[in-house]
Amino acid sequence: MSAEYKAEGNIAVITLTNPPVNGLGFATRHAIVEGMKLALNDDAITAIVITGAGKAFSGGADIKEFNSPKAFAEPSLHTVINVLESSEKPVIAAIHSVCMGGGLELALGCHYRLASPGAQIALPEVKLGILPGAGGTQRLPRVVGLELALNMIVSGTPIASEKLAKTALFNEVVEGDLMQAAFAFANKVAAVRPLPKVRDIKVDYPNYEAFLQFSRNTVRAMSGPFPAPLKCVEAVAAAVTKRFDDGMKLERDLFLELVQSTESKALRHAFFGERAASKLPDVPDDTPVRPIKSVAVIGAGTMGGGIAMNFANAGIPVQILEMKQEALDKGLATIRKNYENTLKKGKLTQEKFEQRVGLITGTLSYEEIAQADLVIEAVFEDMGVKEQVFKKLDEVMKQGAILASNTSTLDLDKIADFTKRPQDVIGTHFFSPANVMKLLEIVRGKKTANDVLATILGISKKIKKTGVVSGVCDGFIGNRMIEQYSRQAGFLLEEGCTPEQVDKAVEKLGFAMGPFRMGDLAGNDIGWYIRKRRYVEKPQITYSKTADLLCEMGRFGQKTGAGWYDYKPGDRKAYPSSVVNDMIVKHSADLGITRRKISDQEIVERLIYSLVNEAAYILEEGIATRASDIDMVYLTGYGFPLHTGGPMFYADTVGLPNVVMAMAKYAKGRHGDAWKPAPLLARLAEEGKTFN
Ligand code: 3H9
């Protein structure tokens, strides 16, 4: 049973008991209906209170059931709500903590609703690419008004219950004991007949047509590739333009359409992917964690500063260590400026500004950071420099401190072995700008202790990052894959594309930025530096020389005012560059390549399938724990379009046999060796299976 029935004198109490958030799965729905039968058949019962056990009233429909027949098995959520609404005895919802989605729809089917202050009230279905499908779009406007309901449904943002106290959503917002208040209320309304039903309320909104048209225009402009927001407007509109039952039918049709859409499946995949990423099969949930009350960051550069801000934002004091006073002052001034900009934009209060700036201090002495619980090194990406830093950290840091490296490509096991405590060493690879980007790649060394991993996974949540664990390999998950993508981008230039054509093709799919605009933003010299190392270490790997030629021209990107594109002073817009395009054409001629017209489809396939193939190796080698971890890396760190669900989910959607078939075609072209399918990919394609 996922709901408990109990009679407290003349009041029946149905308590949802489906942890963690009392999702309204099949068993819970069934148990609610059974509870209602008991209450209605017992003459001694005069009213029914519905509430939730634990940390939620209800988080809504059980999303895990969405792809199974259980989602719509009877009693469906509609049936449950009908049973409540048509009950001859008053039904009162006692709401606390979380009341979302189907949970709120269930409450709206009750005759009365009481809430504790601070309860999060939302219809967040749009964030999963669907719309409230159990009457939410029809009932919420009837109690909070058309405008507020539309905002809540289109944004999915939770509102604290006390802010809705004046609306007809709640009969009371209760300061004291919720259940006691619910019993008192139940006794008060026990004899009321007829019982109030939300469906009977009329939505009153003069000039609703103008408002709805304005909403359609605004939402259409904002929703990009996602169909759900506009459908939400259509469904809410029906609450004012149609009879209740007709509005319900429209809502149902739109819900069924959206729930099948790839965009919704992708968003649901990302929802569960984000939560799965924090779990490791060999690190149990009850693994002890080390307390992190203070942090030190080595290096006050852009990366170090950004990393420090994350901790200050979470209320944790951070020391930044630099070698020279000048560099330290510059770093601290940049941080202050960043916070000042946020303050000016009104996104930070003066009090928070001062608190955060006050939490970040500077030092020139390793001895002064010795007591920090966690130290993160963000120095130059060079093994010799890392060696010096880690030997020093090993010497000065207190026992039990976690020693983390922000390396993006170097061998973490080697770094760990510079110390006598490799079990305390871990990689924390932040993405630039580190105070903005969601991804934190957590690199697990061979000797990293489980409690160190569990601590960093916990800290990543605290600083609001999506933490994804990677094993040690060159580039870890993200950069190892991006190398294959960059190689293809380079080959495409040699064969006939311009940087603009390549960028536009993937940006049309929804990428935040194509590879060349990205290179100009990050600095083309970084890749150049890495390739020079590779030319020595891995001479068997081939690269297009175009990127080297570009760097030899001094075109490092936005920071030098010129890269793959031209830039004008004070303007970040990328202008196609005739100098670069001439260089590319000449390079093709030097290689004896006849340039050809390349379709957008070929560009997209080559870029994405090169990521997917490398990812299949990564998965098979156990560098990534699961395919959805790889998707989370790309969705949160590399601007991969959310509506596609990440590279692995995208490949699953296209169909792995189709991916392999396209790869076979490209294998016949130049650098065909890059297109040999990874064994895992080949096997899954052959068996008709998917990554996720
Ligand atoms: C809906 O209602 C459709 C209807 O309109 C129509 C139907 C016909 N189902 O986020 P957390 C799990 S659609 C299943 O870390 P928090 C989650 O996976 C639904 N599982 O906790 C995780 O599991 P695990 C509309 C769910 O305290 C665990 O709970 N509702 C659901 O930070 C803890 O999650 C939503 O979209 C669910 N509905 O935040 C609400 N919700 O431990 C989505 C959570 O195995 N949920 N889980 O990894 C949330 O926004 C947050 O989870 C919530 C709690 C605020 C509730």
UniProtKB/TrEMBL annotation:
One of its GO terms (molecular function) is enoyl-CoA hydratase activity. Residues 475-567, 603-689 form the 3-hydroxyacyl-CoA dehydrogenase C-terminal domain. GO terms for biological process: fatty acid metabolic process; lipid catabolic process. CDD domains: crotonase-like. It catalyses: a (3S)-3-hydroxyacyl-CoA + NAD(+) = a 3-oxoacyl-CoA + NADH + H(+). Residues 294-470 form the 3-hydroxyacyl-CoA dehydrogenase NAD binding domain. The keyword Lipid metabolism applies. Pfam families: 3HCDH, 3HCDH_N, ECH_1. Keywords: Fatty acid metabolism, Isomerase, Lipid degradation, Lipid metabolism, Lyase, Multifunctional enzyme, NAD, Oxidoreductase, Peroxisome. It is found in: Peroxisome. The keyword Lyase applies. Gene3D superfamilies: 1.10.1040.50, 2-enoyl-CoA Hydratase, Chain A, domain 1 (3.90.226.10), NAD(P)-binding Rossmann-like Domain (3.40.50.720). InterPro entries: 3-OHacyl-CoA_DH_NAD-bd (IPR006176), 3HC_DH_C (IPR006108), 6-PGluconate_DH-like_C_sf (IPR008927), ClpP/crotonase-like_dom_sf (IPR029045), Enoyl-CoA_hydra/iso (IPR001753), NAD(P)-bd_dom_sf (IPR036291). Pathway: Lipid metabolism; fatty acid beta-oxidation. This is Enoyl-CoA hydratase/isomerase family protein. It comes from Undibacterium jejuense. The lineage of its organism: Bacteria, Pseudomonadati, Pseudomonadota, Betaproteobacteria, Burkholderiales.
